[in-house]
Write a structure and sequence with these properties.
Largest sheet of chain B: 7 strands, mixed
Strand content of chain B: over 45%
Helix content of chain B: under 10%
Low-confidence stretches of chain A: none
Structural class of chain B: mainly beta
Largest interface: A-B, 30 and 25 residues
Strand content of chain A: 35-45%
Oligomer: heterodimer
Distance between the termini of chain B: 39 Å
Radius of gyration of chain A: 13 Å
Number of helices of chain B: 0
Helix content of chain A: under 10%
Largest sheet of chain A: 6 strands, mixed
Radius of gyration of chain B: 14 Å
Shape of chain B: globular
Order of helices and strands of chain A: EEEEEEEEE
Mean pLDDT of chain B: 97
Structural class of chain A: mainly beta
């Protein structure tokens, strides 16, 4: 099982707000920044959020990230059909000395 | 345009070897840490290995230690992953990735290749 815990699925109708949680521990999220990746079907992952809440150039401001203690969350506001994808949280783990990912959350737009 | 292009994937028998390559372009390759990340069929992402700018610092996930080696040739803007003693559980799409910030506290990957598929089966 993954070091970071995400729900396997989330869904919403167009325009709704969807939130994905990511739970870790003191050796990863508790000590280091959290990043989020979006993986559209059949494609490579894409950086969505870095350093807890920073958006790379080109990422819509509908996507936002936050972190508190050993947990983090990704929010998608104004859900759109093109947001259907798998979303992964990630952080460096000081105990494992490696970059760890959550198992991924599949977002479905109803 | 920043680009990473992997090659070298294929079908290999258990216990066999394979060498993956990644050609980088559009950025100064020699100034970046690089990484390999894999994704088994229908599964999530798994970080495999990191290498620093001159190859003097290398890290692996425990499951591949002693079997995989990572290297780079800055003159050729290329990253490599030598995989030996391959197992069925190594079957995955292998992504070459560029590390944006290598410091643990702020570590993240910001560029990904399209991936190359490795299948370990008899």
């Amino acid at each position: 099982q993954s070091v970071l815990t995400e729900p396997p699925s989330a869904s919403g109708t167009p325009g709704q707000r969807v939130t994905i949680s990511c739970s870790g521990s003191s050796s990863n999220i508790g000590s280091n920044t959290v990043n989020w990746y979006q993986q559209l079907p059949g494609t490579a992952p894409k950086l969505l959020i870095y350093s807890n809440n920073q958006r790379p150039s080109g990422v819509p401001d509908r996507f936002s990230g936050s972190k508190s203690g050993t947990s983090a969350s990704l929010a998608i506001s104004g859900l759109q059909s093109e947001d259907e994808a798998d979303y992964y949280c990630a952080a460096w783990d000081d105990s494992l000395n490696g970059y760890v990912f959550g198992a991924g959350t599949k977002v479905t737009v109803l | 345009e920043v680009q990473l292009v992997e090659s070298g994937g294929g079908l290999v028998q258990p216990g066999g070897s394979l060498r993956l390559s990644c050609a980088a372009s559009g950025f100064t390759f020699s100034t970046h840490w690089m990484s390999w990340v894999r994704q088994a069929p229908g599964k999530g992402l798994e970080w495999v290995a990191n290498i620093n700018q001159d190859g003097s610092e290398i890290y692996f996930v425990d499951s591949v230690k002693g079997r995989f080696t990572i290297s780079r040739d800055n003159a050729k803007n290329s990253l490599y992953l030598q995989m030996n003693s391959l197992r069925a559980e190594d079957t995955a799409v292998y992504y070459c990735a560029r590390v944006a910030l290598p410091a643990a506290r702020y570590y993240y990957i910001n560029v990904w290749g399209k991936g190359t598929t490795v299948t370990v089966s008899s």
